[in-house]
Amino acid sequence: MDRHVVARADEIGPGERKLVHVRGRAVVLFNVDGEFFAILDRCPHQGGSLCEGRLTGLVTSKEPGQYEYSHRGAVIRCPWHAWEFDIRTGQSWCEPGRIRVKSFKTEVQAGAGLVQGPYVAETFPVTRDGDYVVIEA
Amino acid sequence: MKLLDVSAIDCDVHPTVPDLADLLPYMEPHWRDTISDRGIEAFESISYPPNAPLSARPDWRDERGRAAQNVTSLATQALDRWNLRFAVGNCIYGVHMAFSEDLAAVLARAVNDWLVREWLDREPRLRASIVVPLQNPELAVDEIRRRSEDRRFVQVLLPAMAEAPLGRRHFWPIYSAAERAGLPIGIHAGSSYRHPVTPVGWPSHYVEDYASQAQAFQGQLASLVCEGVFTKFPNLKVVLIESGVTWLTPFLWRLTKFWRGLRSEVPWVDRPPSEIVREHVRMTIQPFDAPDGTERLERIIDHLQSDRMLLFSSDFPHWQFDGDEVLPNGFPESLVGRIAVDNPLETYPRMKECMP
């Protein structure tokens, strides 16, 4: 598993997203209240671009007629058939046991820390000031 | 295994009310006189017009052209003939057609009393479904409570098309009472004829009405699942009676597919509808809407992904088959015991209480 610098942290504001490419694969990067999450930009159903989807929350229910709304801004709906995925884990909400989109571990690192590794500086331009989003893929 | 060898349980036969006059002794004087004063002659619907070929097989009709009007004909023509252990009597009478809730309740009570006296008391192999006034769920619950102590009533009977989609919460007291009493809900083909019997409007012909019943069952199934009836009543079973069978798989495929995208609309449906239906829903096999042939039938059952869903039925005296071809031609012999004994006993647990 390699680590890839994919974006400057300050170019994706809270609630925003960015399509990046890691080893030739399209990956969507989300900023949820300052925390970054990354999933493959490909719906496991028929390949719709999740980056184009609508960001929403999770509706669950304990019994008919009762609605509980949580994880606002952490669920992406595929633009093609509206399947819902938790952007933090890639898990589908229609059949959590069976369907999930690939997710990646992300972290934000200071630019100074990154240049020290041999695997980053070679492929991604890194400047010394500011923080960067790093994906493990 | 052959049907005659297993002492099968027939999950759909039709005791038929000969005449409204036969129900009058089971009504209080006020209602008896009301019926006569108002000039009400009958409560039969156009669901099974007496002269329609489907309504009764020719060799089962009496000299007046009617069939299944007394327990003797049911016993000799069906119970003895097919060596049946039990049969579930579903009385299709126009109780659900009355606009008056009180009159509907009176009719339901009379039909159930008549079933007890004229049928159940005279034939130990017979079981019955409770006819309820769906027009008023409170009165329907009263009728369920009144009957459920009689263990020969094994089900609550509802028509496939009535006031509103059956999943609506308005009807839930009925499901609650049925679940508590350990009674499945049987939904039988037919309509209160309040609304067109097809989604596109009133058809011109009987054949359209009868063939379109499958669409009504689809609508009811979608309603029951999506309104959350099976979430709220996890022990409730629903039996689709005279619904046909083979439409189920493509319909569930469609329902499950769209649920994946629209799940958040019905968040209480927390697993695929196909799975919920496999657990909660059963279907009687006559009329079986598929071509003959073991291989084809095996494939259809394979598509259901369960051998627990089908219940043996003859639909006596309706003309669904000739002679003794009560099972679809080529029905896999390995499944006869399952659909004719095991599945009915699992669906109607009250039957186990006094097994012959």
Terminal CA distance of chain A reads 6 Å
Count of DSSP strands of chain A = 9
Shape of chain A: globular
| Proportion of strand residues of chain A | 35-45%
**CATH homologous superfamily assignment of chain A:** Rieske [2Fe-2S] iron-sulphur domain
Order of helices and strands of chain B: EHHHEHEHEHEHHHEHHEHEH
Q: For this structure, what is the CATH class of chain A? A: Mainly Beta
Characteristic key phrases:
heterodimer, A: 137 residues, mainly beta, Rieske Iron-sulfur Protein, three-stranded antiparallel beta sheet, 3% helix, globular, B: 356 residues, alpha/beta, TIM Barrel
Short structural summary:
With 137 residues, chain A is mainly beta.
Question: Please, could you describe this protein's structure?
Answer:
- The complex is a heterodimer of chains A (137) and B (356).
- With 137 residues, chain A is mostly beta strands.
- Chain A has a single domain (3-136), classed as Rieske Iron-sulfur Protein (3-layer Sandwich).
- Chain A has one helix and nine strands.
- In chain A, the strands form two sheets. In chain A, strands 1-9-8-4-3-2 form a six-stranded antiparallel sheet.
- In chain A, strand 5 (54-60) and strand 6 (68-77) form a beta hairpin.
- The longest helix of chain A is centred in the C-terminal third of the chain and has 4 residues, at 111-114.
- Residues 113-129 of chain A have low confidence and may be disordered.
- By secondary structure, chain B is of the alpha/beta class.
- Chain B has a single domain (3-354), classed as TIM Barrel (Alpha-Beta Barrel), CATH 3.20.20.
- Helix content of chain B is 37%, strand content 12%.
- Chain B has helices spanning 20-23, 29-37, 71-79, 101-119, 137-148, 172-181, 206-211, 213-226, 229-232, 248-262, 273-280, 294-304, 336-347; strands spanning 9-13, 86-89, 126-131, 153-161, 185-191, 238-241, 281-284, 310-311.
- Chain B has an eight-stranded parallel sheet with strand order 1-2-3-4-5-6-7-8, sandwiched between helices.
- In chain B, helix 4 packs parallel to helix 5 and helix 5 (137-148) packs parallel to helix 6 (172-181).
- Chain B is globular, with a radius of gyration of 19 Å.
- The two termini of chain B are 20 Å apart.
- Chains A and B meet through strand 5 of A and helix 9 and helix 10 of B.
